[in-house]
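Saturday, quiet lab. Running sequence design on the structure tokens for the scaffold JK sent over.
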């Protein structure tokens, strides 16, 4: 029987600095999305760019995918403290660009840099946990990290709403730039005292070339082309860009499947041919189908129902809060219930999409909050069991790669879903200064378009759990 670890073994002078380092790095990334979603109506009102709203999420997620894939190699080559300082600097520069943006295109450059820096910090924070803490303390440290994710769901909209209501939305980005600068200074101050921060590995030329740069470029360019197809929807250019984007993504999957050591995803990750492909199809589809409430929820609630930035932000945050509560409620369930919780969670996600089809255009605001809570609970009650069942049914040689691929596919789904929602929203007229009734029609169109993706995800979930 393992010895129980108390919180006092983590929350003390010896581990205070590394714990603060990990928590601050994760906080910058975790609170970012809901902060920007809450401020988006004011941003669009000030600098325009309603047609590019989805790009603020899509570019951030693409940057996170690229940085997450490169994060481990960067630590090996340059050491943990240099890598984290670099990513903190990139994130800080991105915040500054967003804060001073006179037009939306400058904001998008800033968001891409925030995604690169924040995604790198997340990947390297988990490396820091393994390097700076003994293994016996890891569960407690990860519990602190999980608590921080839940806290960010509450604080992100609060911070964004306060800056909008009592100051200027630009102050929200300056506030996070200051925190990134604080993180950089903190790492520099403690690099000499923490052995794991300064260690780097000498890499062979073979290892140094292992970053799959070309494949990541194909993935990023494919998503960006799909998103670009929605800026100005036309009968000729839009289909051409969509075809080019999907060809790029198909080439990425083809080339990635031919690799061995540097493969990012399992072979044939999508489809219905196996439980693993069903699981990744399910994750991709439901992440793509549910990101629309984060991207467009606040601005539609503001246009259609007159919600304040703070209220719209907290309604959007109900999804993250529901995820935390759902995960905690079922965390001790035995393995025999995995199928029930996975299918139950995916069914709740479908109900939430159906609910948004009605509630976004019709209201009231409390009903939108209820369906956002359903969405979060759906993810929360199923997510841990997806990982457990995947590792149980997958080939033993692929189990670690499959576990590592889950967050990559998750972010890929968010980026692809944001691009898709942008096409639908702009095609329905969101780029104009909408009256309330038209905003309701746009909202209904967005979530109706998400229903087929959710249905494919539900079919994939059934394939995933149907047999061992």
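Result came back. Writing it out in full:
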């Amino acid at each position: 029987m393992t010895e129980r670890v108390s919180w006092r073994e983590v929350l003390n002078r010896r581990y205070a600095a590394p714990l603060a380092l990990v928590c601050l790095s994760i906080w910058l990334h975790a609170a970012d999305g809901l902060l920007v979603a809450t401020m988006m109506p004011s941003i669009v009102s000030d600098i325009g760019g309603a047609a590019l709203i989805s790009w603020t999420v899509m570019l951030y997620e693409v940057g996170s995918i690229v940085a997450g894939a490169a994060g481990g190699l960067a630590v090996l080559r340059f050491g943990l403290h240099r890598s984290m300082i670099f990513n903190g600097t990139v994130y800080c520069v991105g915040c500054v660009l967003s804060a001073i943006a006179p037009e939306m295109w400058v904001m998008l450059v800033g968001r891409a840099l925030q995604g690169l820096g924040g995604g790198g910090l997340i990947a390297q924070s988990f490396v820091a946990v393994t390097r700076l803490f003994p293994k016996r303390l890891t569960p407690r440290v990860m519990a602190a990290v999980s608590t921080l994710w839940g806290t960010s769901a509450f604080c992100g909209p609060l911070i964004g709403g306060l800056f909008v209501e009592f100051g200027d939305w630009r102050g929200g980005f300056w506030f996070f730039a200051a925190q990134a600068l604080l993180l950089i200074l903190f790492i520099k101050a403690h690099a000499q005292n923490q052995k794991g921060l300064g260690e780097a590995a000498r890499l062979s030329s073979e290892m140094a070339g292992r970053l799959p740069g070309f494949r990541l470029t194909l993935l990023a360019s494919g998503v960006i082309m799909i998103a670009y197809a929605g800026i100005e929807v036309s009968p000729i250019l839009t289909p051409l860009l969509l075809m080019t984007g999907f060809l790029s993504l198909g080439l990425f999957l083809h080339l990635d499947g031919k690799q061995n050591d540097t493969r990012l995803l399992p072979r044939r990750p999508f489809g219905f041919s196996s439980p693993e492909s069903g699981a990744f199809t399910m994750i991709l589809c439901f992440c793509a189908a549910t990101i629309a409430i984060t991207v467009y929820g606040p601005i539609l609630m503001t246009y259609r129902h007159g919600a304040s930035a703070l209220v719209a932000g907290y309604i959007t945050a109900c999804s993250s809060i529901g995820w935390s509560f759902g995960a905690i409620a079922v965390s001790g369930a035995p393995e025999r219930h995995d199928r029930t919780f996975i299918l139950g969670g995916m069914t709740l996600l479908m109900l939430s999409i159906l609910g948004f089809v009605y509630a976004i255009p019709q209201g009231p605001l409390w009903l939108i909050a209820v369906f956002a809570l359903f969405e979060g609970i759906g993810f929360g009650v199923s997510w841990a069991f997806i990982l457990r069942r995947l590792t149980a049914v997958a080939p033993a040689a692929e189990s670690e790669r499959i576990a590592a691929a889950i967050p990559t596919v998750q972010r890929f789904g968010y980026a692809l879903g944001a691009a898709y929602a942008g096409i639908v929203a702009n095609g329905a007229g969101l780029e104009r200064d909408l009256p309330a009734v038209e905003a309701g029609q746009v909202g209904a169109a967005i979530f109706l378009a998400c229903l087929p993706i959710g249905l494919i995800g539900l079919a994939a979930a059934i394939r995933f759990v149907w047999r061992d």
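Notes for JK: Residues 200-209 have pLDDT under 50 and may be disordered. Residues 436-466 form the longest helix (31 residues). Ask whether to fix the surface positions before the next round.
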